[in-house]
Amino acid sequence: MVLMSGAKALIEALKKENVKVIFGIPGGAILPVYDELSKESDINHILVRHEQCAAHAADGYARASGQVGVCMATSGPGATNLVTGIATAYMDSSPVVAITGQVPRTLIGKDAFQEADIIGITTPITKFNFQINRVSEIPGIIKTAFYIASTGRRGPVLIDVPRDVQTEEADVEFNDEIRLRSYKPIYEPHPLQVEKAAQLLIEAERPVIVAGGGVIASNACQELVALAEFLPAPVATTLMGKGAISENHPLSVGMLGMHGTVAANHLVQDADVLLAVGMRFSDRTTGNLKTFCPNGKIIHIDIDASEIGKNIRPHVPIVADAKRALRAIYQRLVEKAQKKEKTAWLRRMQELKEMQEEVVKSNVGGDGIKPPALMVEIRKILPNDAIITTEVGQNQMWAALYLKVYKPRAFISSGGLGTMGFGFPAAIGAKVACPSVPVVDIAGDGSFIMTEQDLATSVAWKIPVIVIVLNNSVLGMVAQWQRLFYGRRYFAVHLGGIPDFVKLAEAYGAQGIRVQSLEEFRRALKTALNSDVTTVIDVPISSEENVLPMVPPGQDIRNLMLS
User: ∠ at Cα 508 (507, 511), nearest 5°?
Assistant: First the structure.
């Protein structure tokens, strides 16, 4: 046991969890911790300009590195400003630990200055949360929080620390023991369910695999590809699963869902066996649940038992880690050594992929800068290991559809919550995690405006990322829906061409470039890649551009609007 303050114990506990960086903003209720942090050389603190950005940066750091991201804020508005970022991480199963200051214990519940019930507020959007009441609890709670965040179905954990606990001194003991009676993730698949899944896949004539974010989270990409090649079976991905299989692999058919590819949507609907791995059958993926994969037997692998049967009732449920489940099924298939010829099915896959290429070509051509063409050019210029983050809206879907990704953790986007403003701070976090790799945020003007103030963070801390703003002067996806489904009655979507993004970037000390052609864009992106400062590339596009393909809401995912 060692006598120390709560603030000191907190920092020591974080060091034992191998925390290298914290994104945050100080305030009165967390100042004792910041005072201890100022004496610490092993942990780098990055001062962001808004707490929401601290949470998004920690999330981007976590998704790019596979490690737990950490953010910190003071009580009251500092804590509540983290909420959108915490909810984003929760919906996308990203391991983040958020630490908040709180008013002294004697003032909790008395509406003290900058008091907020952050435990109550974040209970629905965290995997778990803690309020520390004694200094002696700190090492155990920190260790437990990191364990919960990084195991099973990953997710955010919040730790609330009253100010007087930070200054109080007590004997503290650090050990590696974690006691959690009710939290025991299941990693190993049940052998009987593995046998059932293997038998279904052997008998299948039209098998399809759908890979979600759980495949990437469990580092199961090699197992996914091995299984797909053995069957062989086409592989579609969810938005969160993009990168689980290289999108230049012959069996990759792209993203499934509302803005899915022709190949992915049609193959899934025609499948006789569907192997869904680490995905949750969200509405944006399935379309009309009643018509989803109508004649297919579904095998659902997920580490979270609550997802099994929540939206789709599977024929073979498997609660397990994706990596171990895929490996077990693969081994059983090899042991059975029975394979059906799938020449006709693979020929159908190829026909649909060729149809998709025609859709790409039709959307790439035309006058002006077309976003699909822009995505193709970005892919040509960026190295294969570059990390792409996205904002939310049309920019996100253009990137998901037309910008191919070859590696896991190289595509980072807000899926479940659809958080505008996510991409830029997530890019900062990803760049901190992977400083030697180019990081590019595909943005819309509406999304980028929401968190552009953290250009100051990227410049001040020398975190050079690239922001490509698809600037159509409207809230693009809302305008698209108004155009297609509301008789072109545009309302509350026009942004007025404000601000001037080149001047905005320069005001922060970043580099701003406006382009008017694809050739100018190529030069600008190459310039940005060679720059040691953040670059914002302003790309004016038409406000009438649509993201296609698109499935109208609530319809069968075969009902793709192609033009």
Answer: 85
As a three-state string, the secondary structure of 173-239 is CCCCCCCCCCCCCCCCCCHHHHHHHHHHHHHCCCEEEEECHHHHHCCCHHHHHHHHHHCCCCEEECC
Whether domain 371-540 has CATH 3.90.228.20: the reply is no
**Given phi > 0 = left and psi -120 to 50 = alpha, else beta, which region is 382?**
beta
Distance from C-alpha of 85 to C-alpha of 156, rounded to nearest angstrom: 10
- Edge-to-edge strand list for the sheet holding 297-302: 252-255, 235-237, 207-211, 273-277, 297-302, 316-319
Q: How far apart are CA 226 and CA 235, in angstroms?
A: 11
User: Boundaries of CATH 3.40.50.1220 in the chain?
Assistant: 191-351
Q: Which CATH architecture has domain 2-172?
A: 3-Layer(aba) Sandwich (3.40)
Hunting for tokens 């190949």 — which residue is that?
263
Measured CA distances, 73 to 47, 64, 169, 527 (Å): 10, 22, 22, 36
For residue 561, give both structure tokens.
Answer: 């609007």
* Full-model pTM: 0.97
Looking at the DSSP assignment, which residues form a beta bridge with residue 24? Answer: 47, 72
Q: Which residues contact 426 (CB under 8 A, 6 or more apart)?
A: 56, 57, 59, 60, 63, 389, 412, 414, 441
CA distance 106 to 505: 46
CA distance 447 to 244: 26
What is the 3 state secondary structure string of 396-453?
HHHHHHHCCCCCCCCEECCCCCCCCCCHHHHHHHHHHHCCCCCEEEEEEHHHHHHHHH
Q: Single out the residue of 417, 220, 409, 183 nearest to residue 301, CA to CA.
A: 220
| Residue carrying the six token digits 């995505």 | 375
| End-to-end Cα, the chain, rounded Å | 69
CA 244, CA 254: separation in Å to the nearest integer?
11
Closest CA to 403 of 350, 441, 448: 441
CA 560 distance to own-chain centroid? 25
Instruction: Walk along the chain (563 residues) and give the pLDDT tens digit of each residue.
Output: 899 999 999 999 999 999 999 999 999 999 999 999 999 889 999 999 999 999 999 999 999 999 999 999 999 999 999 999 999 999 999 999 999 999 999 999 999 999 999 999 999 999 999 999 999 999 999 999 999 999 999 999 999 999 999 999 999 999 988 889 889 999 999 999 999 999 999 999 999 999 999 999 999 999 999 999 999 999 999 999 999 999 999 999 999 999 999 999 999 999 999 999 999 999 999 999 999 999 999 999 999 999 999 999 999 999 999 999 999 999 999 998 777 778 999 999 999 999 999 888 887 766 779 999 999 999 999 999 999 999 999 999 999 999 999 999 999 999 999 999 999 999 999 999 999 999 999 999 999 999 999 999 999 999 999 999 999 999 999 999 999 999 999 999 999 999 999 999 999 999 999 999 999 999 999 999 999 999 999 999 999 999 999 999 989 999 999 87
The CATH number of the domain covering residues in 191-351: 3.40.50.1220
Domain with CATH 3.40.50.970 in the chain: 2-172, 371-540
Dihedral-angle region of residue 293 (phi above 0 means left; psi in -120 to 50 means alpha; beta otherwise): left
